[in-house]
């Protein structure tokens, strides 16, 4: 391998990147001040060698693996019980986005006295938290998608209302991230594709979100370029370490960039995931072109820049949309939400909930519930041509 894939980065947090760096997990815990870590991981990884190895390498550690996709408050509560019962003093959040989000929220809640929903990402609600009650986190991503390892929030499902809520605090940012591409080589092609497009959507929505944030814009553009180049390679050959390493970096870049904001894709995908329990990345991948089409009049200049950075065969908005559709097709992503088991019977509720999702505020043009319902219905039926472009 010609390229040295190893690096230590210090923004947005400390990231130890490179093949084999999982060996430094005990050192990462020591640096983060964790002596008795609780390893929070996905149900599906519970018996995996990488988790067994982590448990063996970390003295006084235990594993909590009752985390499923679209993690819910009950998963966090069970994790908190395990955390308190074991006398832990920090969390190793190890897995895909669900495990990372759940692990971060367990660490955050470990020393709080208010209920979870008091910390939803609304206004300055985060200031209600006791900062001293937030336990440190070491994050180890095993997918290249959500970028939750460098995020300051966790998305948790409220099972009573069927709504996904964003729990936010600046100190939820993991102290140290181990970004080891060898941990992602076993990811199936379909999961690689869906999570990789999620990372692309993070970069794209952040770049198109209104507001002055050139730092985020720069990170987002390079993230999109890396994904264009390396996601097809990671899908074609899961053991391509260079492609895996670049995709892990791009996923972290997406979440770094979306501090600026997200947009209509995530606003719709959140309630769809809540009601239909669909995979977050896959849901975004399906919805993306419908929202691009709706936003057409507001993103002409932005898509022209993206088309140039990606060196697309055709310029501007049309060239960009064509490329998105082609990439999505080549990666095996279905064209309609119906193809992934979503029906239109909840369309009005999904429109309303998408409109109040915090991501909606980052859409390049203001969107209301009726417009989001319109986009959702078109995506369910796979009728891209039926999407009206907003004002
Ligand atoms: Zn996402």
Describe the fold and architecture.
By secondary structure, the protein is of the alpha/beta class. 46% of the residues lie in helices and 12% in strands. It is built from 13 helices and 9 strands. The chain has helices spanning 25-31, 49-57, 73-85, 97-109, 189-208, 214-236, 241-257, 264-276, 280-294, 300-309, 316-330, 347-356, 369-381; strands at 7-9, 14-17, 37-42, 62-67, 90-95, 137-141, 153-158, 163-168, 176-179. The strands form 2 sheets. A 7-stranded mixed sheet has the order 1-2-9-6-5-3-4, sandwiched between helices. A two-stranded antiparallel ribbon has the order 7-8. It is globular. The model has no long low-confidence stretch (mean pLDDT 96). The structure holds zinc ion. Residues 146, 198, 202, 266, 280, 284 line the site of zinc ion. The site of zinc ion has 6 residues, from helix 5 and helix 9.
Label this structure with key terms:
12% strand, globular, single chain, 9 strands, two-stranded antiparallel ribbon, binds zinc ion, 391 residues, 13 helices, alpha/beta, 7-stranded mixed beta sheet
Order of helices and strands: EEHEHEHEHEEEEHHHHHHHHH
Coarse shape: globular
Secondary structure: helix percent: 40-55%
Radius of gyration: 20 Å
* Sheet with the most strands: spatial strand order: 1-2-9-6-5-3-4
Bound molecules: zinc ion
Head-to-tail CA distance between termini: 49 Å
* Oligomeric description of these chains: single chain
Largest sheet: 7 strands, mixed
Low-confidence stretches: none
Structural class: alpha/beta
Question: Beta-strand level of the residues, as a percent range?
Answer: 5-15%
Number of DSSP-assigned strands: 9
Average pLDDT confidence is: 96
Task: Enumerate how many helices there are, as a single number.
Answer: 13
